[in-house]
Design brief:
By secondary structure, the chain is α/β, with parallel strands linked by helices. The protein has 25 helices and 14 strands. The chain is 42% helix and 12% strand. α1 crosses α3. Bound molecules: flavin mononucleotide and iron/sulfur cluster. Belongs to the complex I 51 kDa subunit family.
């Protein structure tokens, strides 16, 4: 591409639209990608010069995020979800059909530059798949007929904005509402209560409620806020003078395959989520908040911006909120660009600062040193929705639901082999068996609770409960019936982790690829018993030595299925009684003869399974 002045002006326009701030690099690159279908060399040069950052920084950020590219993509860039539930609904066959229809291989751009095809990790539409994206916008319920129509629209060069609305239609699909979804708050009601009663009182309500984060780890929300409000301390444990800046971040990255409950909260309860963030700002003393929205949820952005504008009009955001002097707070939407690791809170903050999403070394935790080194609260979308409800209805109301250590309810995203996939909300303590009954699952082989990083459980454990003290989950609940092969599921998950590893630390970068290769080898029937021993030991090594939660959980699918479904592995082995060609004990025979020993200590036992 020859770079004209017009193109250069466009780049400058994008940079200025984002106030020429290096922290906005990712947003600028997203705009450039949308305009040019890649980030061309000259654009990288222009951006680096304007932001006064090295060109290599621009380049490494592009290479990090899967929705950005150095190479030219098609004007219609189509991605199909490669999540296991989409695969179960036939996404691989649909890709072959798409590819033949459009005359382009997956991972390639057609010679005329019109269309490119590829796979992507989960799109957050597991209940309405097979799903995909076209130029970043959701495509739901794909089938042969729909693909025929899409191919025709592409060949006729019809802009995506003019495609039939039903291609993009997404339903909330709420099957079983509970505590939160049945009691949505009136716009502004929680904030009015907070302003009336004071933020100290609201903090006490949050504390009383026992609320724990809904993003998966279950850290106590009140504790997190207290640390952030207190801010950094000097060596004597005293607050450092002049350090007043605080930030509130809503984690809407929702990248765990099988999780789509935040999509519903943002689609239909965005006021409540923003209200929860604003309550948090009042408690910790923050002036600025961010909603970090996963790149694949681009479709939600215009309506979320409209909700924010509405809240500013109603004085629920902005200066002197609800007339309270000094209560100033606003929220900005920041788009991700396709990196699962950016859901990890410190990686998310790096991304928000315009960098690659490499998880930070912790401590210090974000509540002490977060966005731009300032105390920062990061909470999940659902956590903020709970906060608003607690601020209005009180901590005691919330705490009467759930179990002793897990108060309130949990919204879960049900997908896979069941009659009624969708959104279910239960008080904590519900059993797996109850959920399976409600969603119409039969002949169930296994349930994946918490997505690939969670646990795969078998029929013997359906009495177990969703609760932090038993089965913790960020919200994914995938059902697999007896027609599924457990190893296909493990294979999909290990490929996912190898693809999503950020590459920062060796155990995860190298380990997840080796693990993926081991699983492939087993699935292809080339492994022997000893390979399982090696694989289990590699899995434990990755789990215990990786730097962040991604690596620490990447081996969970292998480890949990090795213990719950050993027969599935044994059935694929080449020869269960296979012994290695090299017998270490036999090779020591000469040494034994020379030293005239044949006692037990002079022999080696080889590890078997
Ligand atoms: C690889 C990885 C991905 C994560 N993805 C998300 C996510 O998409 N949404 C989320 O809220 N938390 C995610 N988390 C957890 C966050 O790091 C963090 O604990 C959470 O946002 C805190 O909010 P909470 O206390 O309200 O749960 C992820 C963690 C890891 C290690
Ligand atoms: S564990 Fe994996 S994702 Fe986490 S820092 Fe290491 S390489 Fe990156």
């Amino acid at each position: 591409m020859t770079w004209s002045e017009t193109e250069q002006d466009k780049i400058l326009g994008f940079v200025r639209k984002h106030d020429s701030k290096p922290t906005q690099l990712l947003q600028i690159l997203r705009d450039v990608q949308e305009e040019f279908h890649c980030v061309p060399t000259d654009a990288r040069e222009n951006i680096a010069n304007e932001l006064k950052i090295p060109r290599t920084q621009v380049q490494e950020v592009i290479e990090f995020y899967s929705l950005l590219s150095l190479e030219q993509q098609g004007r219609f860039h189509i991605l199909l979800s490669d999540s296991i539930t989409d695969q179960m609904m036939g996404s691989r066959k649909l890709m072959d059909y798409f590819s033949a229809k459009l005359g382009v291989e997956p991972g390639q751009t057609r010679a005329d530059g019109r269309v490119s095809l590829g796979f992507t990790s989960c799109t957050g539409l597991c209940d309405q798949g097979p799903a995909g994206l076209v130029n970043g916008h959701w495509l739901s319920r794909l089938n042969g007929d729909r693909i025929d129509s899409i191919a025709e629209l592409v060949e006729r060069d019809v802009p995506v904005e003019n495609w039939p609305e039903e291609f993009f239609k997404i339903e909330d699909n709420i099957q079983y509402p509970g505590l939160l979804l049945e009691n949505p708050i009136e716009v502004g009601a929680a904030l009015r209560q907070a302003v009336r009663n004071g933020f100290d009182e609201i903090f006490e309500e949050i504390n009383r409620s026992g609320l724990r984060g809904r993003g998966g780890a279950g850290f106590e929300t009140a504790w997190k806020w207290r640390y952030c409000a207190e801010g950094p301390e000097d060596l004597n444990g005293l607050p450092i003078a002049g350090q007043h800046e605080r930030y509130v971040i809503c984690n809407a990255d929702e990248g765990e395959p099988g999780t789509f409950k935040d999509r519903i909260l943002l689609n239909s309860h965005a006021h409540q989520v923003f209200e929860g963030m604003t309550v948090c700002a009042g408690v910790v003393g923050a002036k600025q908040g961010f909603l970090y929205l996963r790149g694949e949820y681009l479709h939600l952005r215009p309506q979320l911006e409209a909700v924010l504008a509405d809240r500013r009009r109603k004085n629920l955001l902005g200066d002197s909120i609800l007339g309270r002097q000094g209560f100033d707070f606003d929220i900005e939407i920041y788009m991700g660009a396709g990196a699962y690791v950016c859901g990890e809170e410190s990686a998310l903050i790096e991304s928000l600062e315009g960098k690659r999403g490499i998880p930070r070394i912790r401590p210090p935790y974000p509540v002490v040193s977060g966005y731009l080194g300032k105390p920062t609260v990061v909470n999940n979308v659902e956590t903020f929705a709970c906060v608003a409800a607690i601020a209005l209805y009180g901590g005691a109301w919330f705490a009467t639901h759930g179990t002793e250590k897990s108060k309130g309810s949990k919204i879960i995203s049900v997908s896979g082999n069941c009659e009624r996939p969708g959104i279910y909300e239960y008080d904590f303590g519900v059993t797996i068996a109850e959920i399976l009954l409600d969603c119409g699952a039969e002949n169930t082989l296994a349930v994946q609770v918490g997505g690939p990083s969670g646990s795969i459980i078998s029929g013997r454990e359906y009495h177990r409960q969703l609760a932090f003290e038993d089965l913790a989950t960020g919200g994914s609940f995938m059902v697999f019936d007896k027609s599924c092969d457990i190893l296909d599921i493990v294979r999909n998950f290990t490929h996912f982790f190898a693809h999503e590893s950020c590459g920062f630390c060796t155990p995860c970068r190298v380990g997840t690829t080796l693990l993926k290769n081991e699983v492939d080898k087993i699935c292809e029937g080339h492994s022997a018993a000893l390979d399982l021993v090696g694989m289990a030991s590699l899995a434990r090594f990755i789990k215990t030595t990786s730097h962040c939660g991604l690596g620490q959980s990447a081996a969970n699918p292998v480890l949990s299925t090795l213990s719950h479904f050993p027969d599935a592995y044994k059935a694929r082995l080449k020869d269960v009684s296979f012994e290695p060609g090299f017998d270490l004990d036999e090779s020591l025979e000469t040494a034994r003869r020379m030293s005239a020993r044949d006692d037990a200590m002079a022999h080696l036992e080889q590890e078997g399974i």
